[in-house]
Amino acid sequence: xxxxxxxxxxxxxxxxxxxxxxxxxxxxxxxxxxxxxxxxxxxxxxxxxxxxxxxxxxxxxxxxxxxxxxxxxxxxxxxxxxxxxxxxxxxxxxxxxxxxxxxxxxxxxxxxxxxxxxxxxxxxxxxxxxxxxxxxxxxxxxxxxxxxxxxxxxxxxxxxxxxxxxxxxxxxxxxxxxxxxxxxxxxxxxxxxxxxxxxxxxxxxxxxxxxxxxxxxxxxxxxxxxxxxxxxxxxxxxxxxxxxxxxxxxxxxxxxxxxxxx
Length: 262
Description:
single chain
């Protein structure tokens, strides 16, 4: 019996020693950051809705393009990896980011306190605001007039929240093009979206629409990054600062808007 007890004691001691050795080995192994992994993989994945022209959309060749796409391409070049833009539904973007389906969201996402609880944001890469757009013959002139009216917005946006605050009957869409089409078919009294997006849609599609009232609110757009990726956030902010200093940002902006929208 004593011999058996001694064997048990020796076994326990060996297990404890092995466990200590394992812990020491793990703590000594450097943990790779998100930025390290991106550099090893050789690509930077960034997501957007793909339904927000001219910021992000599919062209006639079914290629994802636009202002956001090119900003992401420039950031990837400065990190020395390949840019990989991805299109996914707007209301699933943050969930996709937090579950590591892609590295960041670069899709004209406004920086809000609610979103900051879930993700980090880069420094703003452009500024705009929420605008009411109505048919040219509409009598709607400002936000107060939207009470009881049917208003189209993209699902999960700050525009949706504002439309509900104004007492509108809200109809949600995957992208602005669908909302604008519904308004042309008289299914909507108004659309709330980004001012720049609205101006572009009217220009490109010759819509008989007009912008009414002042901006409902101003917004700063940022690049969303997981909270566990501070090194990537630092690299993105550094790339943006360089782009704005050396003229690269202005060149991309003027290509799509004939103006610097920072």
